[in-house]
Amino acid sequence: MKICVYPGSFDPLTQGHVDVLRHAAELFDKVYISVLNNGAKHPVFTTEERVEMIRIAVAAEKIPNVRVDSFNGLLVDYAHCVGAGYLIRGLRAITDFEYEFQMDALNRRLASDIQTVYFMASPEHSFLSSSAVREIGSFGGDINGLVPESIKNTIAERLAKP
Ligand code: PNS
């Protein structure tokens, strides 16, 4: 059985993430989409909120073979725990490459049995990021189409709070 982990901050989940998740679910038997539970990054949404929103979106979008989870500590340790041999990452522009290149090298050094698979973002999502959603939402801007419809209102209401 081919198992992968799609890790991230998902603060919050965007349509770009959903697009990558769909492709991963097509290729793998089981996909763990897993939220990094790390206070150091000072996320706007709590880990529980992010996990719950991903659960709602995955159910609404009817993406099969997906488990929603969170993790602490090293990603490769978590991947070993759930029996995953692959990590999933999305790439938007060349600016993502440097960070991903470094992370790939470190993860390979830590666990040579785990490979990372990259999906290029669709052109319509190449500009999209969680931080852009947070910024637009915090000023009351329209986030329609940027995040899954099923969690759009929750995200907008939460971001609009002072
Ligand atoms: O969505 P993000 O913030 O780009 O995701 C980054 C993430 C969660 C994949 C990365 O920070 C991570 O794997 N953190 C866990 C700690 C770890 O394993 N570090 C070593 C490799 S950089």
Structural summary, described in words:
Helices cover 46% and strands 19% of the residues. It has 162 residues and is of the alpha/beta class. Strands 3-2-1-4-5 form a 5-stranded parallel beta sheet, sandwiched between helices. Strand 2 (30-36), helix 2 and strand 3 form a beta-alpha-beta unit. Helix 5 (130-138) packs across helix 6. It is globular. 4'-phosphopantetheine is lined by residues 7-9, 36, 74-75, 103, 106-107.
Keywords for this structure?
162 residues; alpha/beta; five-stranded parallel β-sheet; 6 helices; globular; binds 4'-phosphopantetheine
Outline the fold blueprint.
Layout lengths: L2 E6 L6 H13 L2 E7 L10 H15 L4 E6 L3 H8 L3 E6 L2 H17 L4 E6 L9 H9 L10 H12 L2
Parallel strand pairs: 1-2, 1-4, 2-3, 4-5
The structure holds 4'-phosphopantetheine.
4'-phosphopantetheine binds next to strand 1 and helix 4.
Characterize the largest beta sheet: strand count, sense, and whether it forms a barrel.
Answer: 5 strands, parallel
Instruction: Report low-confidence residues grouped into runs of 5 or more.
Output: none
General form: globular
Mean pLDDT: 96
Distance between the termini: 46 Å
Assembly context of the chains: single chain
Q: Order of SSEs, N→C?
A: EHEHEHEHEHH
Structural class: alpha/beta
Q: What proportion of the residues form beta strands (DSSP E)?
A: 15-25%
Number of helical runs? Answer: 6
Strand order of the largest sheet: 3-2-1-4-5
